[in-house]
Amino acid sequence: MKNIFDWCKRHIVLFTILAVGFVVVFGFINIQVLHMTSEPEFCHLCHPAQGFGPLAEVDSWEHSAHGEAGVSCLDCHGRPGVIGYAKAKLGGLRDLYMQFTISKEEKLEILSNPDENLVPSWHCLFCHSDEGNKTVRETTTGPMKVVSMRMLDDVVNPGFRLRKGVPDIMEETLVGGTHFDHTLHIEEFDLSCRDCHFGVVHNPATKTDRMNFCLTCHADAGDGAPQMADCTVCHEAQVAMNEGQGVEGIEPTMSLMYGEAADMTCTDCHTGVTKGVFRSSVSTCTDCHEDLEYKNVFEEWAGETKAKVAKLREVRVEIEEALKDADSAQRNTAQAWSTYQRGIKNLRFVDHDGTNGVHNNEYTVAILESVEADFEATLELLDNVW
Ligand code: HEC
Ligand code: HEC
Ligand code: HEC
Ligand code: HEC
Ligand code: HEC
Ligand code: HEC
Ligand code: HEC
Ligand code: HEC
């Protein structure tokens, strides 16, 4: 030992260089390992199934809105800040240990009964509200980040929200196309995100489940709360689509089958509501139109819209990557971002209606054309800033 110290003293410069080199290389390898073991591909090794539910967490994530928006595993399964990240990595070691010590059945049992607080409400609010983001940033112990490891630690609202085109859910009442006041309901009835959004990402509850939950309170008069028959109070997005208005720059176009001219309203098509069947389908068309050809009209409308939306979603992922690249190279992307934001806002208008254009095909087609144009313009603007 003494010899080593003597050697170091004699070669102090060389020693310093070696020591610094070691720390840098070791640190770099560590960071690479941390990075690699945070990626969905790594999680996939032990969570490999297809579809929804336990074991299929990576596949379900890939097809979810969060996956498409680049929100990754540790953005939800690790709390904000360096300490939160470190804790998540330690949890990962436990996963590894358990993988080799418990049976397949035990693993499935754990995955089928996720802890109630696996992702607590305040964590969701970190991204989905401005106040929630501020509070967590102010109260997080330790630094937010050392190096950029994931999206979560860079989330600063309102900027993050606006770029992703999503509302502040505690302030705004048009959410996901539905008129719903989160603050009122969460505070008055002490609900958590999980009560309504259970399975968000991994195993979506059906929309009928969700509406039925509303109806536990909204189907017996009183409290001034809207009742089931008041479709238009809650279903803002579908009203806007049927009325064919709300998208800036697109000529208002009432649906052929809605409003006074056609003498039709929601329940003329949604005839099953009193029996608890909310969703209409292709067979609804031939309730009124005798000609069976009208089923083909439905398929054509829905099919073409679906294909177009799928294509635009792929382009969207591409554009966000390109925007991020340009941002990290410090290019001026302000105009590109704002054109892109208008595009995703309008794409979301179609998404929120949820019928692939069946409610108002003409309006839908016009909106999607404008989205495509905005996306193309964004890519052009990006070409120009390089
Ligand atoms: C070596 C295999 C392995 C890898 C890799 C792995 N997991 Fe797991 N995971 C498991 C096992 C086994 C369980 C069940 C036992 C447990 O809770 O640790 C589990 C459980 C979980 C749970 C549920 C914990 C709970 O308390 O309900 C989450 C969340 C999770 N993993 C997320 C991830 C994420 C995110 C990744 C990638 C960063 C990942 N896992 C990578 C094996 C693994
Ligand atoms: C890292 C930030 C982040 C976190 C954490 C986060 N989200 Fe999101 N969430 C987003 C973004 C971005 C979108 C928009 C996706 C899109 O482009 O449509 C979104 C979309 C949604 C949507 C609408 C789309 C859908 O899948 O139905 C819901 C509901 C939602 N989040 C709920 C939650 C809940 C509940 C949690 C906590 C378990 C949570 N989010 C955690 C960023 C986040
Ligand atoms: C009482 C039920 C209920 C509770 C509790 C609840 N939500 Fe929601 N949330 C809804 C409904 C309904 C919608 C609209 C869904 C739709 O139309 O697709 C919604 C929509 C959203 C959206 C989509 C916004 C958009 O425009 O893309 C986000 C994000 C969201 N909720 C986050 C949360 C978070 C975070 C919590 C917990 C703090 C929470 N919600 C608690 C019922 C609830
Ligand atoms: C937007 C937040 C969010 C993202 C992103 C996310 N999860 Fe989850 N995850 C949850 C929530 C919330 C639960 C709790 C159960 C539920 O509500 O579905 C959960 C549950 C789990 C579980 C427990 C078992 C189960 O199926 O419920 C595992 C394992 C898991 N997630 C792994 C992953 C992996 C791996 C990724 C990345 C590929 C990922 N999660 C991405 C929010 C998220
Ligand atoms: C636990 C009972 C309960 C549940 C569950 C519930 N609500 Fe409510 N809601 C109420 C009550 C009570 C009011 C009236 C409160 C008031 O006006 O002060 C109300 C008011 C409303 C209003 C009118 C207030 C406004 O914002 O304009 C809407 C719209 C609404 N709820 C939508 C929904 C939706 C959508 C769901 C399902 C995701 C839902 N509610 C679930 C009890 C509930
Ligand atoms: C109190 C608010 C409220 C009222 C009133 C209401 N709904 Fe809903 N409805 C919802 C919510 C919330 C959802 C779930 C939306 C989501 O998750 O995207 C829903 C879902 C639906 C769905 C989709 C079902 C599925 O599984 O695909 C249809 C169709 C629907 N509602 C039709 C109607 C009709 C028609 C009326 C009027 C008779 C009506 N709703 C009244 C809140 C309401
Ligand atoms: C011309 C008939 C028709 C009229 C009028 C109509 N709908 Fe629909 N609606 C449908 C059909 C058909 C579907 C199912 C589309 C599909 O499965 O692709 C649907 C689907 C829906 C959904 C589910 C969307 C989702 O997110 O999955 C809701 C909610 C809805 N309608 C509400 C309304 C409301 C509210 C009105 C009145 C403002 C209305 N509808 C008027 C035929 C109609
Ligand atoms: C409740 C009755 C009703 C239902 C259900 C209905 N329609 Fe219509 N439809 C009408 C009426 C009324 C008009 C307006 C007739 C006019 O202006 O000539 C119309 C007009 C149309 C037109 C344009 C004029 C024509 O006859 O070609 C098309 C296309 C059409 N409907 C397709 C559909 C499709 C697709 C569905 C299923 C999603 C559907 N309709 C469901 C009543 C209905």
Describe this structure in words.
With about 375 residues, the protein is mostly helical. The protein has 3 domains: about 1-35; about 40-160 and about 175-205, no CATH class; about 280-385. The chain has 21 helices and 2 strands. The protein has a two-stranded antiparallel sheet with strand order 1-2. Helix 9 packs across helix 10 and helix 19 runs parallel beside helix 21. The N and C termini lie far apart (about 55 Å). The relative contact order is 0.07. The mean pLDDT is about 95. One heme C binds near residues 98 and 110. One heme C binds near residues 207, 269 and 281.
Quote the average pLDDT: 93
Outline, from the CA principal axes? globular
Strand order of the largest sheet: 1-2
List low-confidence stretches: none
Rounded to the nearest angstrom, the distance between the terminal CA atoms is 57 Å
What is the string of helix and strand elements?
Answer: HHHHHHHHHHHEEHHHHHHHHHH
Strand content: under 5%
What profile does the largest beta sheet have? 2 strands, antiparallel
Radius of gyration, in angstroms, nearest whole number = 26 Å
